[in-house]
Amino acid sequence: MEKVTDWFLLWRQLVEAHDRFWQIKKKQKKEKVDLWKDRARHFDKMVRKRWTRPDSSRDLLRGMLAAHPNASVIDIGAGTGAWAIFMARYASRITAIEPSDSMCQVMRERIAAEKITNIQIIKANWPDVDVEMHDFSLASHSMYGVADLRAFVQKMNQVTRHRCFLLLRVLLANAPMAKAAMRVWGQPYDSPNFQVAHNALMQMDIYPDVVMETEKGWDPWTHESLDEA
Questions:
Q1: Is the pLDDT of residue 1 over 90?
Q2: What is the pTM assigned to this prediction?
Q3: Which of 63, 91, 188, 214 has the greatest number of CB atoms lying within 10 Å of its CB?
Q4: What is 10-57 written as a DSSP string?
Q5: Cis bond upstream, residue 208 (ω within 30)
Q6: pLDDT tens digit string along 91-109?
Q7: Helix 101-113, helix 40-50: angle, nearest 10
């Protein structure tokens, strides 16, 4: 008989496995490291390119906000502000939570360029930040570095009146990284992803609605050199 998987433990193990590399980098520099320092503008460029194509996730959020005029939204791990700026057109106010100085700087520039006045930026890590109640909350691919997924989700529930949204990557079973993980770890999950999070939510007695994006997703990551990769 198969043993029942502790999905929260698996999520933590995957986060910690990926975090070991960055811990080594931090120790080498002996200082607090902004992991996005040299990548924030490249990331913003990738997001802008991705958003030139149709996106069912944006359509879903747009429809939800249109049905709730004057709503407030928390954008958790707001990055360079793509989601915050998009939602600001339909919501009364956005609270953008982002821990990276580099990401916040690019986000401020984008907000100023578009003359948006209803976004508040809070430089902090989720869930270690106090915010007031909002109507909706969104975490778009911002949970992958958080080992305690339960606390991440519980905090979202505590400060959200209506609905929480989590956007996560889905790992295809025949993907090279899934095959590599099977060889190395004996299970196909190379990193925190939708499959692990979905099962973890059900472990919390949370049974989420699931909407799969049907459009072409992100372009493959590219690097200047093998060392950079």
A1: no
A2: 0.88
A3: 91
A4: HHHHHHHHHHHHHHHHHHHHTS---TTTTTHHHHHHHHHHHTTS--HH
A5: no
A6: 999 999 999 999 999 999 9
A7: 50
